[in-house]
Amino acid sequence: MKLQRLHVTCAQCGQDSSVSVMPDGVHGQFVLRSIGSLEEAFLNAVQDPTYDEVEHLINHSRRLIGKDNWFRAHALQRTYGEIACDPDSTGSFFNIGKLPNCPKCGHATLHSWRPMSPVQFVDRDIAPVTHRAWHALSEAQKAFRVDDVLEARGF
Ligand SMILES: [Zn+2]
């Protein structure tokens, strides 16, 4: 897949480096990352049925009664990786929309990031997210899991 390179500066070690992220304007495709490692996992939300499944459960969760569509979409993006995706090798949950950790020291907080100038792209393969734990749940357990994660994340 085609990723865009960003120039980043780390908030922890202060070093400059570069990372690659999904370019703006790509619909429904995400690179998931955790705070615990430099591992990445690819999600094509248009083709992965678990995304629609979690979206449906979130839209019907009693925790989000009375919330508007924007808020529900926000809750879905914030919780989907923890709800339905297997964690990385360190046990940390993958998240949609998380910037990469610093490639130099592994710290999860970047001080700044901006596109390379001129704009640069790289072609990389990233393994898709897996859903072994999610698929092992019953329908009732899936609904409980959605509510549990929503609660834990403050929704
Ligand atoms: Zn660093």
What would you say this structure looks like, in words?
It is a single chain. The chain has 155 residues and is an alpha+beta fold. The chain has one domain. Helix content is 29%, strand content 22%. It has helices at 49-59, 69-84, 132-135, 139-152; strands at residues 2-10, 16-21, 29-33, 40-44, 110-115, 121-123. Strands 1, 2, 5 and 6 form a four-stranded antiparallel beta sheet that branches. Strands 3-4 form a two-stranded antiparallel ribbon. Helix 1 (49-59) packs across helix 2 (69-84). It is elongated. The protein starts with a strand and ends with a helix. The site of zinc ion (ZN) has 8 residues, from loops.
Helical content, roughly?
25-40%
Give start-end ranges of low-pLDDT stretches. Answer: none
Task: Estimate nothing, just give the exact number of structural domains.
Answer: 1
Cofactors, ions, other ligands: zinc ion
Give the CA-based shape: elongated
Quote the average pLDDT: 96
Which strand-content bin applies to the residues? 15-25%
Q: For the report, how would you describe the main beta sheet?
A: 4 strands, antiparallel
Oligomer: single chain
Structural class: alpha+beta
What is the rounded distance between the termini?
A: 33 Å
Instruction: Please count the beta strands (DSSP E, at least 2 residues each).
Output: 6
Q: What brief labels describe this structure?
A:
155 residues, alpha+beta, elongated, binds zinc ion
Summarize it.
The protein has 155 residues and is an alpha+beta fold.
Strand-helix topology:
Blueprint: E1 2-10, E2 16-21, E3 29-33, E4 40-44, H1 49-59, H2 69-84, E5 110-115, E6 121-123, H3 132-135, H4 139-152
Antiparallel strand pairs: 1-2, 1-5, 1-6, 3-4
The chain binds zinc ion.
